[in-house]
Amino acid sequence: MRILIANDDGIHAPGIRALYDAIHDLGETQVVAPNAEQSAVGHAITLSNPIKCRPVERNGSFFGYAVGGTLLTR
Questions:
Q1: 3, 12, 17, 59: least CB-packed within 10 angstroms?
Q2: Do residues 38 and 12 make contact, with C-beta atoms less than 8 angstroms apart?
């Protein structure tokens, strides 16, 4: 089974790590989340800046990918 974990609280939020720890044994688990908190940014879009993705390690081993590139529009 493949499992994707994502959130809007960011890759370093404690909840995403707790969820990963609870279910990673159930299947191939991948974590992809914003590089910073994006809560309540429903009216955001990336226009001219590149979307960047970088690997994140926790405790010396690969944890997931941090994604950045959203600009708030008004």
A1: 59
A2: no
pTM over 0.90: no
Which tens digit of pLDDT belongs to each residue from 6-36?
988 889 999 999 999 999 999 999 999 988 7
- Alpha carbon 7 to its chain centroid, in Å, reads 6
Pairing of strands 44-45, 2-5: unpaired
Measured distance CA(34)–CA(65) in Å, rounded: 8
Place of tokens 């994502």: 6
The angle formed by the CA atoms of residues 4, 61 and 2, to the nearest 5 degrees, is 20
DSSP letters of 8-27? SS-TT-HHHHHHHHHHGGGS
